[in-house]
Structures are given as structure tokens and as C-alpha cells.
């Protein structure tokens, strides 16, 4: 069905590529009606979406990749972190230029600065050893609308250099911030969950991977802090999944990867530190939504105050994290004094 003409690349391939360019992200399910319509016109007979096979789709993706490669573009794929059926997501990504620079072609300098503050919040403020949320609520996002990026938890200042040149430093209004969040979802950079949390989409994780690792992970040494972690099984970034109950252990696994991984293991133990794997220590919004504080607030306040509840729980967690860090530092100082004596 996907046979090419003598030229090797025909109008059906061009039509598919145009459809992909218009959407940026596709799954096999979404591509089937597109290819069915293309085949109906190209072959002169009706083709139904259910007639499209995975082999048809893969052949058109391969042809599209060959066509766009001279322009430093590539169609890459990854699995959804949240789907229950292991849906593979295909996205058109730029292979050379900085994704933040790409966004600067459609957004103002102040909007890009706002985006960087959002990413700092996701990967630093709300990504701690105690709670790896890697997400942000709408209320928290809007609160970041104004001002230059603050010094991050690790001490870096994420101004982004040339990427934010031209920024007036005035930030956005709250209404503009809300519109920007909506735009980031519509453009496929963010996903918004039913619980009201924003996190990076599969497309964003594919395209921003190099930038995220370079920005939020220490360069060298096993002791360096690594806020962007990858799945032990598939080696893709984990912002939604499971973690080892040992806070010092770096092992993280996607939910679907965990199901497959532990199915063939004799014991359900962490593959790194060998501690029992609970399956209830989470990465992502469930690090908040499964806590007793969150559930108590849900019972008291109801669904209507969801965003406020999410923000309150995250703020409490952050305060407790800072208090715990202070206690740890005090203990270390006390130990040093004893050693000195």
C-alpha cells in the first residue's frame, strides 16, 4: 500500500510530511486517518483507517526523515510516560539549534524568561530528594509571571544569555502568564493533568533533553547533583514514574518499564542498591497527590479548590524540605566541631 513511484518520493509522501509539520506530534492512531485519506487520493480507491498498518506508517516516517534531514530536522519517537497502553509518540525535532532559541522565534524575550523560570521551578524548586514532583500548578506558574529569573536552588542564575536578549526585565502580567501557559500546552510543549499539574510533554523531553541535562545536572563526578534522571530500563528522562525508596539511590523507572522489568526478576528489588522496591515512591505529581496532606485537603475542600490545594501542599513540602536541609547542615557542623575537639 505504501509502494513508492519511480521517483522514490511522491506526492503522498509530501502530503504526509505537510500533515506532520502542521501537528509536530503524531501517534500511530492519529496517523491512520491521515494516511487513509492520502492513500484514497493517491491510489484512486477508498482506504479506511483500519487498513493502515504500522509498517505503512513506519515507511512514511522513514521517507519523511530522509526528506527533512538536510534541514537539521528529524522525526524521533518515545513512549508516553502516562499512557497505560505504551503509546509511542513521534515528534519532529530540531537536531542542531537550541530549542529555547527556536521558541524565541515565536515568543517574546519576556515570555522566554518566564518559560525558564517555569523550568527552574519544575526541575529545582519542586524537584528535591524528598519530593521529585517535576511539575508545577497553574497558581505556582502564574506567581512566576514577573521579574528576572531568581537564583536557582543550585545557585545558578538561569538568564540564558543570548536567548533572553531584548527582555525588558519587566516580566509578564498575570493574564499574559496564563495565556503563555495555554499556548505552551497548545504548542505541545507542556501537558496539563486532570489534577491540574503542568509538566513537560513527550515532545518537549525529546527536544529539550540535551539542554535540560546540561542546565540542571552537574558536569562531572559521581557525586555531582543530577536533577534530571533517566529510566534504568529505557534510558529516557523520567518526570513521571517510580523511584527507589532510598533517597540516596539514583534509580528511577517509568511505570510501564517497571511492569516489564520486574516481571522477569526473581525479587522486586532496586536494580542499583538492592533495597525492596515499593512501587509507591513516585516521581511526578503523585509524589504530592498520594500524600495524606493532599488527600485530607481533598476531602475537606472538594474539587473546586484543587489548584489552591496543590499549591499549599507543595509549599508545605518545600518548607519541610528546607527545614530538613537546615537540620542536616546543623548536624554536620556539630560533627565537625566534635572532630575538631
Helix/strand/pairing class, anyone?
A: mainly alpha
Count of extended strands: 9
Sheet with the most strands: spatial strand order: 1-3-2
In terms of per-residue confidence, which ranges show pLDDT below 50 for 5 or more consecutive residues? Answer: 149-166, 326-338
Helix percentage range: 40-55%
Number of H- or I-type helical stretches: 12
Q: Average pLDDT across residues?
A: 81
User: Largest sheet, if any?
Assistant: 3 strands, antiparallel
* Rg computed from alpha carbons, rounded to a whole number of angstroms: 23 Å
Compressed to H and E, one letter per element, the order equals HEHHEEHHEHHEEHEEHEHHH
> Globular, elongated, flat, extended or rod-shaped: what is the shape?
globular
Strand content: 5-15%
Distance between the termini: 82 Å
Question: Can you describe what's shown?
Answer:
- The chain is mainly alpha-helical and 341 residues long.
- Helix content is 46%, strand content 10%.
- The protein contains 12 helices and 9 strands.
- Strands 1-3-2 form a 3-stranded antiparallel β-sheet, with helices on both faces. A 3-stranded antiparallel β-sheet has the order 4-6-5. It has a 3-stranded antiparallel β-sheet with strand order 8-7-9.
- β5 and β6 form a beta hairpin.
- α1 runs antiparallel to α2 and α1 crosses α3.
- The longest helix is centred in the C-terminal third of the chain and has 35 residues.
- The N and C termini lie far apart (82 Å).
- About 9% of the residues have low confidence.
Amino acid at each position: 500500500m505504501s509502494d513508492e513511484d519511480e521517483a522514490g518520493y511522491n506526492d503522498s509522501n509530501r502530503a504526509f510530511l505537510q500533515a506532520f509539520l502542521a501537528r509536530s506530534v503524531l501517534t500511530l492512531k492519529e496517523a491512520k486517518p491521515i494516511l487513509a485519506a492520502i492513500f484514497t487520493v493517491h491510489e484512486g480507491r477508498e482506504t479506511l483507517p483500519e487498513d493502515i498498518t504500522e509498517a505503512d506508517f513506519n515507511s512514511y516516517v522513514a521517507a519523511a526523515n530522509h526528506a527533512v534531514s538536510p534541514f537539521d530536522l528529524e522525526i524521533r519517537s518515545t513512549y508516553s510516560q502516562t499512557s497505560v497502553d505504551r503509546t509511542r509518540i513521534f515528534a519532529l525535532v530540531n537536531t542542531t539549534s537550541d530549542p529555547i532559541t527556536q521558541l524565541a522565534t515565536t515568543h517574546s524575550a519576556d515570555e522566554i524568561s518566564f518559560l525558564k523560570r517555569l523550568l527552574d521551578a519544575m526541575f529545582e524548586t519542586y524537584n528535591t530528594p524528598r519530593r521529585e514532583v517535576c511539575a508545577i500548578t497553574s497558581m505556582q506558574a502564574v506567581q512566576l509571571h514577573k521579574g528576572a529569573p531568581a537564583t536557582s536552588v543550585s545557585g545558578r542564575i538561569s538568564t540564558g544569555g543570548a536567548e533572553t536578549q531584548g527582555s525588558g526585565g519587566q516580566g509578564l502580567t498575570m493574564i499574559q502568564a496564563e495565556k503563555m501557559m495555554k499556548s505552551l500546552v497548545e504548542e505541545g510543549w507542556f501537558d496539563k493533568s486532570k489534577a491540574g499539574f503542568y509538566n513537560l510533554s513527550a515532545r518537549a523531553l525529546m527536544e529539550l533533553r540535551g539542554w535540560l541535562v546540561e542546565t540542571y545536572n552537574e558536569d562531572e563526578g559521581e557525586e555531582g547533583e543530577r536533577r534530571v534522571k533517566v529510566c534504568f530500563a529505557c534510558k529516557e528522562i523520567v518526570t513521571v514514574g517510580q523511584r527507589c525508596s532510598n533517597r540516596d539511590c539514583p534509580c528511577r523507572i517509568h511505570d510501564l518499564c517497571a511492569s516489564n522489568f520486574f516481571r522477569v526478576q526473581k525479587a522486586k528489588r532496586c536494580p542499583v542498591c538492592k533495597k525492596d522496591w515499593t512501587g509507591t515512591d513516585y516521581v511526578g505529581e503523585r509524589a504530592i497527590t498520594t500524600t495524606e496532606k493532599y488527600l485530607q485537603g481533598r476531602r475537606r475542600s472538594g474539587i473546586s479548590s484543587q489548584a489552591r490545594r496543590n499549591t499549599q501542599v507543595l509549599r508545605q513540602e518545600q518548607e519541610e524540605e528546607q527545614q530538613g536541609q537546615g537540620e542536616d547542615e546543623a548536624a554536620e557542623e556539630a560533627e565537625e566541631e566534635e572532630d575538631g575537639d
